[in-house]
Specification:
It is a single chain. The chain is about 65% helix and about 0% strand. It contains four helices and no strands. Helix 1 runs antiparallel to helix 2, helix 1 crosses helix 4 and helix 2 packs across helix 3. The longest helix has about 35 residues. The chain is elongated and about 45 Å long.
Length: about 120
């Protein structure tokens, strides 16, 4: 069972990530993967419709060198995949901007701060 404090913290994290994606503070595709991961948190309603889009997008992006996994890719492979990453970023931003705004509105309240603000 999830308590109110855990639920509030998870929802706040969703809002922070969404806002950081919108503002450019967080690499867009990294944010997609983080929101997809957060969608499985028990503090959120199972299969929250507002996050389902990010689960689908993360599935489509699987296999690209995004986030911490980049360190394990060769420089040549990173260069080869860079055009795909750039195209995927444009695609994901176009599909999800409104969904991100909705997540900030639903879960952010008045307390949305930057990712480094704790």
């Amino acid at each position: 069972m999830v308590n109110e404090q855990e639920m509030s913290a998870t929802r706040q994290r969703v809002a922070l990530v969404a806002q950081a994606m919108l503002s450019g503070e967080l690499a867009f595709l990294e944010g997609v993967f983080e929101l997809a991961e957060l969608s499985h948190d028990p503090a959120l309603a199972r299969h929250d419709a507002g996050l389902r889009l990010f689960v689908v997008m993360a599935s489509e992006l699987d296999g690209l060198p995004i986030g911490p996994a980049r360190q394990y890719w060769s420089k040549a492979a990173l260069l080869r995949h860079q055009p795909s990453i750039e195209a995927a970023t444009v695609w994901a931003r176009g599909l999800s901007t409104e969904a991100l705004r909705n997540l900030v509105a639903r879960f952010g309240g008045n307390g949305v701060r930057g990712l480094d603000d704790g």
